[in-house]
Amino acid sequence: MQIAHEHVRVRVPATSANLGPGFDAFGLALGVWDDLTVRAVAGPTRVVVEGEGNGNLPDGEGHLVVKAVRSGLEMAGAPQAGLELLCRNAIPHGRGMGSSAAAVVAGLIAARGLISDPAALDDATVLALATELEGHPDNAAPALLGGATTAWVDDEGPHAVEVPLAPGLRPTVLVPDARLTTSSARRVLPAQVPHADAAHNVARAALLVLALGGRMDLLLAGTEDRLHQGYRSDVMRPTAEAVRALREAGWPAVVSGAGPSVLVLERLDRPTAETLSRHGWRVLDPGVAAEGAHLVSP
């Protein structure tokens, strides 16, 4: 295997995981994009970040995209090289919108574009490597495939399938100023949950598939959760209060991934959006990204 192209460009979407009851399984690609250019060079690795993460991310081998590119090249049996990255980031960091999964998937797709035989890094291999780097596939799957996905892991590794989406689905994302690491959000989860809560989420996750496919009348019931959001409320109190208030008003609101952003699986009306904006939330109307990470012309 050889490095056949010196220069590739990748676009990768933001994602929201869980969607309420689908903990560590469901994901949705959102129309907020990171745009990365990767060059294979003879010199040392250098990373330039514009936009989100500027000044806060490693500028060399420690950058997550660089680690992912190297993982992909190693899996393909291709030689390593120095890398020059230009990352134009629009996905907020530490807000539950899949920024780390986007970086990993983008790096692996960049490696695919650099090598002489892209089939060595097919989607199944990329998902497996991304899951190894991320720890779970819920964000990596929609970042790779686009749209809505359900992902799971068995003895053969991670898998993902696309979930049919109604054309009219128009999500809203509420982004706070505060950040929260995924590890902090996971530390508060219990090792065991009541059987009744597990049964509740199984039923709601099944409803959610129907709702996403067109039964919009089921969105509110289909986004109810008892497995993770309540336990996380103490570490993201404004998020928990926003979700509660929106749901009481009839909006299908959930915590986006590990938070603290809020995902609403409908487009908010103007008065509600303006009220949230006045209370410090950045209101995004990103639409669904039908396409996942992909190579584009340099």
Task: Write a concise synopsis of the structure shown.
It is found in: Cytoplasm. Pathway: Amino-acid biosynthesis; L-threonine biosynthesis; L-threonine from L-aspartate: step 4/5. The chain is an alpha+beta fold.
Overall strand count = 11
Instruction: Label the overall shape.
Output: globular
- Level-2 CATH architecture of the largest domain: 2-Layer Sandwich
Top-tier CATH class of the largest domain: Alpha Beta
Q: How big is the Rg?
A: 19 Å
User: What is the percent of helical residues?
Assistant: 25-40%
What is the count of distinct domains? 2
Q: Give the rounded overall mean pLDDT.
A: 94
Which residue ranges are poorly predicted, with pLDDT under 50 across at least 5 consecutive positions? Answer: none
Q: How would a crystallographer describe the biggest sheet?
A: 7 strands, mixed
In angstroms, what separates the terminal alpha carbons?
22 Å
Strand content: 15-25%
Helix count from the secondary structure assignment? 9
Pathway: Amino-acid biosynthesis; L-threonine biosynthesis; L-threonine from L-aspartate: step 4/5
GO molecular function: kinase activity
Function: Catalyzes the ATP-dependent phosphorylation of L-homoserine to L-homoserine phosphate.
Family: Belongs to the GHMP kinase family. Homoserine kinase subfamily.
In words, what does this structure look like?
The protein has two domains: 7-164 and 288-296, Ribosomal Protein S5, domain 2; 172-284, 2-Layer Sandwich (Alpha-Beta Plaits). The protein is 32% helix and 24% strand. The protein contains nine helices and eleven strands. The protein has helices spanning 64-76, 99-114, 123-134, 140-145, 182-187, 195-212, 219-222, 237-248, 270-278, and strands at 7-17, 26-41, 46-51, 82-89, 148-154, 157-163, 172-175, 253-255, 262-264, 282-284, 294-296. Helix 2 (99-114) crosses helix 3 (123-134). It is globular, with a radius of gyration of 19 Å. The model has no long low-confidence stretch (mean pLDDT 94).
